[in-house]
Design goal:
single chain, about 450 residues, mainly beta, Pectate Lyase C-like, 31-stranded parallel sheet, three-stranded parallel sheet, 6 helices, globular, Beta_helix, Right handed beta helix domain-containing protein, Pectin_lyase_fold/virulence
């Protein structure tokens, strides 16, 4: 029995050591090279190992609490987590000058039932899988973050363990234990390259200057992303498969301003960028009974200042493809909006409007977009610029759909080269630089 346990421990450590830079020099040399690097030292946690270890590969810590409880971890260090179930993890008050990273070894499943970063600074969580314990109830966010400069990377956040099966869930299944994927409440938070699946709500961006980049949201029952924090950057995200389980008007991305009392539409939300995202209402069975009618990007309760909405692909069936109500110095440029279910002249639309309370929208630009319809009243059009937009009722005439569901211009289509260089973003939906030598293209993609 002791030999068997020792063998399992040895295999676990070999798995962890495999991913440390310098490993070709051998485990000991690898550790020495890495420990001497500017990025800091490596430490190890193996659940179930004997307490009292020193965090080395030979004597790993038995828990995350033990790792942070002895004063050994310093700025720039990495704590490697072996496969196992870590339960609910709360890190409180940790502050570092450089990132300290908790990282699951690639190819292993290090699972948390919940993660709370409470007033932490420069803490990174990398490669962790999260789902709630069955029957735990209570709802709430699976990841909750406050503090400054925290990074969430390569996470797999699930409403339940088998979240990929969300198309087989009933309405009762969805309502039984609804979960929010993550809430970013700190400043300068980052969520990147993560998957959020089978959730009542995907992500709430509450703190200022958050970066949300390269994530996938699939199967959600409300909004995939909500933004109420100034300076948010939301880029290169893929959003798909909204289900109707409540009376909420579901949005791929929604944002609103808040007053001192927290009421929507009472203050100013500034500096938000929503760029190069793909929003697809549905990719599952067409006749699914819970398929929702999704709104794409909805900003209904301004004011919004210095707002950019660019290079997004939106395929939805609700009227609001992209709508902004109450803005100053907003740019809505080079987006592609199509109807997800039918040919329609009614929508979805791209709309620029005054605030609900009558405050005018000023000094804003709507240009180089493709959509079935564009809305803006006479006073809005007089105070703002609508230029070079293209009404496309029959998308298959001018657009073709990629394997990932996004819509591009036909290679030899009539809209090629018709984007105004003065208002075209420097890059497109893929992040490639737009080359003006052959003319620039309207919509989200440049070239074929």
């Amino acid at each position: 029995m002791e030999k068997s346990m020792a063998s399992r421990k040895e295999k676990t450590m070999q798995s962890l050591l495999r991913y440390i830079p310098g490993r070709l020099l051998g485990p000991v040399a690898a550790l020495c090279v890495w420990c001497g690097a500017a990025l800091g030292a490596d430490h190890f946690v193996v659940p179930g190992s004997a307490p009292g270890g020193d965090g080395s590969a030979a004597q790993p810590w038995s828990s995350i609490a033990e790792a942070f409880g002895n004063g050994v971890v310093n700025s720039g260090d990495t704590i490697h987590l072996a496969e196992g179930d870590y339960g609910a993890v709360t890190l409180q008050g940790l502050a570092y000058d450089q990132l300290v990273t908790l990282r699951a070894a690639p190819g292993t499943l290090a699972r948390f039932s919940r993660l709370v970063l409470d007033r932490t600074r420069n803490v990174a969580i990398d490669g962790i899988t999260l789902w709630p314990d069955p029957g735990s109830g209570g709802g709430g966010a699976l990841v909750s973050e406050t503090g400054q400069g925290n990074v969430l990377r390569n996470l797999d956040i699930r409403g339940r363990q088998a979240a990929d099966m969300y198309t087989s869930w009933s309405a009762q299944d969805w309502r039984m234990d609804p979960r929010v994927g993550a809430k970013l409440m700190g400043s300068h938070s980052i969520l990147e390259n993560s998957r959020l699946t089978g959730l009542a709500e995907g992500l709430g961006i509450i703190g200022p200057d958050a970066t949300v980049i390269g994530n996938t949201f699939r199967g959600f029952g409300g909004d995939a992303i909500r933004i109420v924090g100034d300076g948010a950057l939301v880029r290169f995200n893929n959003i798909a498969d909204c289900v109707k389980i409540s009376e909420n008007h579901d949005d791929g991305i929604q944002a609103w301003a808040r007053g001192p009392d927290g009421r929507a539409g009472q203050g100013v939300l500034s500096g938000v960028t929503i760029d190069a995202n793909t929003i697809l209402e549905w990719t599952g069975p067409p006749d699914h009974p819970l398929r929702c009618s999704l709104q794409g990007i909805g900003l209904f309760d301004g004011m919004f200042e210095d707002l950019t909405i660019s290079n997004n692909v939106v395929s939805v069936s609700a009227y609001h493809g992209i709508s902004v109500a109450g803005a100053v110095n907003a740019r809505i440029v080079n987006n592609t909006v199509v109807n997800a279910v039918q040919i329609s002249r009614k929508g979805p639309w791209i709309q620029l409007a005054d605030h609900k309370n009558g405050t005018p929208t000023l000094d804003s630009l709507v240009a180089n977009n493709i959509a079935p319809r564009f809305l803006g009243g006479d006073t809005v059009r007089a105070a703002n610029r609508f230029e070079g937009n293209h009404v496309v009722i029959y998308p298959v005439r001018d657009l073709e759909q990629d394997a990932d569901g996004a819509w591009r211009l036909h290679p030899d289509g009539r809209l090629r080269g018709l984007s105004d260089p003065l208002s075209t973003p420097p890059t497109d939906r893929t992040g490639q630089r737009r080359d003006p030598s052959d003319g620039l293209d309207p919509g989200a993609f440049e070239g074929s």
